Amino acid sequence: MALATLTKGPVGFFLPLTVSLVYLLIQKDFKVMKEMNLLQGMLLLLAIVLSWYLPAVLRGGEAYLRATLFRPIGYYVSELEHPNPIYFYLTAFAADFLPWFLFLPGAIIYGYWNKSSGMKKEFSFLLIWFFLSFLFFSFSATKRGKYLLPLFPASSLMVGKLWGDLVSNQMGRLRRYWVDLPLYGFAGLAMAVAAVLYFAASKRLPSYFPYTLSVTLFIVGSGAASFFLHRINRYGARFFLLVGIAAVAIFFTENFVFCLDHQLRSGGFILRLLRGEIGL
Q1: Of 32, 80, 134, 199, whose CB neighbour count within 10 A is largest?
Q2: CA–CA distance, 266 with 28 (Å, rounded to integer)
Q3: Domain endpoint, select from 27, 58, 77
């Protein structure tokens, strides 16, 4: 928490402390709260933070204090930059956590159904971590997709528990359509994306067609393989297939889509287009 505070300001201790205390209050585990040594912990946090922060403030003065302490608070309470509606993170998190976001509802339901399996406390902690963090950032006046990074460990562990038990055939009462339906939906979405990529590249950006053709063939082949693996109940193979699709999608986006977007936004691209050097 001290290192997070030095990195990101007051949210570095406020968010994890709130999640932990709310979890302990809901669990009514007051014995653990007494054993946590909160006073000593807070003194240690202050010692670590102030040992670096005080000399930095003395060197940087009021301007540094405003930039590191008051400015993050200002971002939260007022729309200084990146103003977005309160529901912004509903779509932002769903897009950033694809394809695993499709399995998050099933993972949450599975966690509730398996309360008797000795994982009740662990699942409750992850759920509180996820929802409190989501609400905290949703009420912020300034919203950016990267602010949701603290949600990814909690959501990944919940989805990982679902897939781990599914692959190892330890899943209890959860109906498998909570996994099958998202898999079908993702395979169908992948096919649609492949079709759009193919026609968009062939019609609008023919010079990039060889790159998109290979990606299109990979997506179509992966979708067909996913349907085949479902028929033979090979969930482990389907999981690694999803990992492969996600990896290729990230590589393609980083090395093609973002580069193309940068070119389209740059003045040099527009000049070459007007001169007739590039045809669309």
Answers
A1: 134
A2: 57
A3: 77
Alpha carbons 91 and 176: distance in angstroms, whole number: 25
Residue 261 lies in a domain: yes
Decide if 279 is inside a domain.
no
* 94 and 148 share one domain: yes
Total number of residues shown for the chain: 280
Average pLDDT value for residue range 79-86:
66
> pLDDT tens for residues 162-209?
888 888 877 665 666 677 788 777 777 777 777 777 676 666 666 666
Q: Which long-range contacts (CB under 8 A, 24 or more apart) does 52-58 make?
A: 52/6, 53/6
User: From residue 140, how far is each of 67, 69, 126, 199 by CA, in Å?
Assistant: 18, 16, 22, 40
Give domain status of residue 243, yes or no.
yes
Phi (first) and psi of residue 81, to 5 degrees: -145, 155
The mean pLDDT value for 246-264 works out to 65
Is residue 179 one of the residues assigned to a domain?
A: no
- The structure's pTM equals 0.73
Residues of the domain holding 34: 1-77
What does the pLDDT read at residue 264? 52
Q: What is the DSSP letter of 100?
A: G
- DSSP 8-state symbol, 14: H
Tens digits of per-residue pLDDT, 115-137?
655 567 888 899 999 999 888 88
3-state helix, strand, coil in the chain (%, to 5): 80, 0, 20
Q: Residue 152: its pLDDT value, please?
A: 92
The structural domain count of the chain equals: 3
